[in-house]
Amino acid sequence: MRPALPAVFAIVIVLTVQGCARNAPPPPTLPGPRSGPHVAPCPASPNCVSSQGTDAEHSVEPIHFGTEPAWAFAQLQQVIAAMPRAQIVRVSATHLRAEFTSAVFRFVDDVDCVLDAPARVIQIRSASRVGYWDLGVNRRRVEAIRAALTSRLRH
């Protein structure tokens, strides 16, 4: 009967983590149009990346484009909408927020994108709502978005 105890303990932990992940509140809303092309800063934890990050652990390049800004941003929306377990929850002419839900534990990560038309870049931030480490998931997600968008913009 003793071997069943670790399995029960593991199930309780998984169910607790799943409940916490689903009930975690989303981060503050995106800044309004007057606040400029900025995404929220990353917390100190390593489960966030941002194109406006100030250190190597959190920093990624913004997404550069050479086409008409509104068209590039529309293509970005299509790229994100086509990604697995992604849901766009808010979009305007210059801001996009999406939620990505992990397949197994149902953790929710938030992706915020802000169009900086004069600079011809899209500022991007991807962050986990709960936990401390993300095992590089947010960085890989941003790079996947960049690759897919770059491919679309070339065609």
Proper CATH architecture: 2-Layer Sandwich
What is the fourth-level CATH superfamily? Kinase associated domain 1, KA1
What's the total count of β strands? Answer: 6
Number of helices: 3
> Sheet bearing the most strands, described?
6 strands, antiparallel
Helix content: 25-40%
Distance linking N and C termini: 62 Å
CATH class: Alpha Beta
What is the mean predicted local confidence, pLDDT? 86
Number of domains: 1
If you compute it from the alpha carbons, what radius of gyration comes out, rounded to the nearest whole angstrom?
Answer: 17 Å
The unreliable regions are: 12-21, 29-34
Envelope shape: globular
Would you give the CATH topology?
TATA-Binding Protein
Helix and strand string, N-terminal first? HEEHEEEEH
Derived from helix and strand composition plus strand pairing, the structural class reads: alpha+beta
In terms of topology, how is this protein built?
Layout (H helix, E strand, L loop, with lengths): L3 H20 L24 E3 L12 E2 L4 H13 L4 E6 L3 E7 L6 E9 L4 E8 L8 H18 L1
Antiparallel strand pairs: 1-6, 2-6, 3-4, 4-5, 5-6
Helix pairs in contact: 2-3
What does this structure look like?
Strands 1, 2, 3, 4, 5 and 6 form a six-stranded antiparallel sheet that branches. α2 crosses α3. By secondary structure, this protein is α+β, with helices and mostly antiparallel strands. β3 and β4 (95-101) form a beta hairpin. It has three helices and six strands. It has helices spanning 4-23, 69-81, 137-154, and strands spanning 48-50, 63-64, 86-91, 95-101, 108-116, 121-128. The protein has one domain: Kinase associated domain 1, KA1 (TATA-Binding Protein, 2-Layer Sandwich).
